[in-house]
Write a structure and sequence with these properties.
This protein is mainly alpha-helical and about 120 residues long. The protein contains 3 helices and 3 strands; from the N terminus they run αβαββα. About 50% of the residues lie in helices and about 10% in strands. Strands 1-3-2 form a 3-stranded antiparallel beta sheet, with helices on both faces. α2 crosses α3. The longest helix is centred in the first third of the chain and has 36 residues.
Length: about 120
């Protein structure tokens, strides 16, 4: 009975350590992406997320589409910074399309109107 309890205990201990290592790795990757997107040589688009929409939905949708993105905390408003590997003009239509799809399928409050996707440099 005691050997089985020790095996279970150490199994959970190893599983817990593994989860912590994976979480830390993901956090470090996100911080590397954040630092890279804030470099002046990196071309980015900034999208101001409307109130009622979760920026995490936008970030996940863009990342799955191949556009690394992070929430820009320095902007004051809820803003997502998107990496443009082919330049702003080349990636703008595709990024706009991805965000529109996220807005159409994402969880928005009932009273939120989905407006046309506009980037910060288009205002």
């Amino acid at each position: 009975m005691i050997p089985m309890a020790l095996i279970i205990f150490f199994g959970f201990l190893v599983l817990g350590v593994l989860v912590l290592v994976l979480a830390r790795s993901g956090s470090l990757d996100y911080e590397k992406t954040r630092a890279r997107l804030h470099e002046s040589a990196t071309e980015t688009l900034a999208y101001d997320v409307p109130e009622g929409q979760d920026p995490a939905d936008v970030i996940v949708g863009l990342t799955r589409a191949g556009y690394p993105s992070v929430e820009d905390l320095a902007a004051g408003a809820c803003r997502v910074l998107v990496h443009c590997p082919h330049g702003r003009t080349g990636d703008r239509p595709r990024i706009r399309s991805v965000i529109e799809q996220v807005c159409a399928s994402g969880a928005l409050r009932d009273d939120v109107h989905v407006a046309a996707v506009r980037f910060a440099d288009e205002h």
